[in-house]
Write a structure and sequence with these properties.
The strands form three sheets. This protein has a six-stranded mixed beta sheet, with helices on both faces. The chain has a four-stranded parallel beta sheet with strand order 8-7-6-9. A three-stranded antiparallel beta sheet has the order 2-1-3. It starts with a strand and ends with a helix. It has about 425 residues and is α/β, with parallel strands linked by helices. About 40% of the residues lie in helices and about 15% in strands. It has helices spanning about 35-45, 45-50, 80-85, 95-110, 145-160, 170-185, 195-205, 215-230, 245-260, 275-290, 310-315, 345-350, 360-375, 380-395, 420-430; strands at about 5-10, 15, 30-35, 80, 130-135, 165, 185-190, 210-215, 235, 265-270, 300-305, 355-360, 405-410. The longest helix has 17 residues, at about 95-110. The protein contains 15 helices and 13 strands. It binds pyridoxal-5'-phosphate and zinc ion (ZN).
Length: about 425
């Protein structure tokens, strides 16, 4: 028995049945799964969650209910980053305001005295004392892409797909190849020729067919679109099927559970296709409908690379859609998405949550990656490291207040970016 009642177009609201294969709406925009949330809420409670498996399938009531093709994804650690947080200088308010903020801070500290890691937190040491890292690098295949793929591949198999195909910037390909292998289905992964070596090798090891193109993920997407009907592929491209979002939204449910039934003030997320950001905002809407939270939302921050920043450009120009970003180039391969198809949703979610969007340079990311590793013992993907710079910039400008609870998403492991880290560490060596 599934709680999904329909698939609904994210732009025009047109409804589709969820019991057959569906991709985009006839208007060309992505479909989202809608649930009977009253029924879901009857059994999806903090109390019931205590005894459930430590994978994202613990939120079964708000996921498609196929037999999961699972490799143990989700329930990643939420690490209280005390050393990193202390190193971030936060702009404090003036003397008068300072005492009132610190009183508020103490109040908040008292209310939230048990953090996700069980430590009590205060606001007297400077910096950001409530900084957390959601370490998605510990998922199967080393990135949060596992979340989307467990849901998408489980559903595709149940709907009778014969072969799966997707364009990828890197990590999604590895995840699709792994879950396809676990499902016993062939996979075709189309990637730019300069995708990090580890992503190519993992796809090959998982037995997928790898097609390398001289181009960007947008060219790879065109290749899949042109070949899928003739070849009989089920298209698992970002937002071109409705269930990767469902897997990714569990990051939002996990934050709520790991913070003991609360959400943070700010979420900083490295944004390529934006699926995680869209997914988490969808999760928060579902939670509100289930009466878990009120209308308040974490302020969502989209971080992009200076060399590929379609969302930041649109945000700064106060536009509701993004333009294709020409000559996209960045070491953070997952952020090299020049024309994200979820642009309308991403931009509207940034607006609705009073969020913001900003860029960081490749050099800043690689520097921050070394900082994060040496201060917290987390070896991040450059995409994850980008969030550290964003936190620094936003704290320095006063956009993030010292007493706020902030979550950085490390979306992938640094181990897959051997080429980038080798260059960065060599150039950082003392003479
Ligand atoms: C490590 C990493 N971070 C972030 C992203 C961007 O993810 P999203 O599509 O959810 O914006 C990707 C996408 O490939 C990635 O591999
Ligand atoms: Zn539509």
């Amino acid at each position: 028995m599934t709680n999904i009642v329909a698939l609904e177009c994210s732009a025009c609201g047109k409804k589709y049945g969820a019991t057959v294969e569906q991709h985009l709406c006839t208007c060309g925009r992505p479909l989202l799964a809608r649930y009977d949330l009253r029924r879901a809420a009857a059994t999806l409670t903090l109390e019931n969650l205590k005894d459930r498996p430590r994978t994202l399938w613990r939120y079964a009531e708000v996921l498609p209910n196929d037999p999961p093709v699972s490799l143990g994804e989700g329930m990643t650690p939420l690490v209280h980053a005390v050393r990193l947080g202390t190193s971030i200088s936060a702009k404090r308010a003036g003397a008068q305001a300072k005492s009132s903020i610190s009183t508020t801070g103490e109040g908040v500290a008292a209310k939230r005295s048990i953090s996700a890691t069980g430590e009590s937190t205060g606001n007297d040491k400077g910096g950001l004392q409530r900084l957390y890292i959601k370490d998605e690098g510990l998922n199967p295949t080393g990135s949060f892409k596992a979340r989307g793929m467990t849901a998408a591949v489980s559903r595709a198999k149940q709907l009778g797909a014969k072969a799966l195909a997707a364009p990828t910037a890197g990590n999604a390909g590895g995840a699709l190849a792994a879950y396809a292998a676990a499902a016993g289905l062939p996979a075709v992964i189309v990637m730019p020729a300069d995708t990090p070596m580890a992503n190519v090798m993992e796809c090959q090891a998982f037995g997928a067919t790898v097609v390398k193109l001289n181009g960007l993920i947008s060219d790879c997407g065109k290749y899949v679109a042109e070949h899928k009907d003739r070849e009989g592929w089920y298209d698992v491209s970002t937002l071109k099927e409705p269930y990767r979002v469902e897997g990714k939204k569990t990051m939002g449910y996990e934050l709520w559970e790991q913070f003991g039934g609360k959400l943070p003030d700010v979420i900083i997320y490295p944004t390529g296709g934006g699926v995680g950001l869209i997914g988490m905002c969808k999760a928060f809407d579902e939670m509100q409908e289930m009466d878990w939270i009120g209308a308040e939302r974490p302020r969502m921050v989209a971080v992009q690379a200076e060399g590929c920043a379609p969302i930041v450009r649109a945000w700064e120009a106060h536009q509701s859609s993004a333009q294709f970003f020409q000559n996209a180039a960045t070491v953070a391969s997952g952020l090299r998405v020049p024309g994200p198809s979820g642009d309308l949703m991403i931009l509207s979610m940034l607006r609705q949550t009073n969020g913001t969007a900003l860029t960081v340079t490749d050099e800043e990311m690689l520097h921050a990656g070394r900082e994060l590793a040496s201060l917290e013992g987390i070896f991040a993907a450059p995409e994850g490291a980008a969030t550290v710079i964003a936190a620094r910039k936003l704290a320095a400008s006063g956009w993030i207040k010292p007493e706020e609870t902030v979550v950085l998403f490390n979306t992938g492991t640094g181990y897959k970016y051997a080429e980038a880290w080798q260059r960065a560490l060599q150039s950082a060596r003392p003479e």
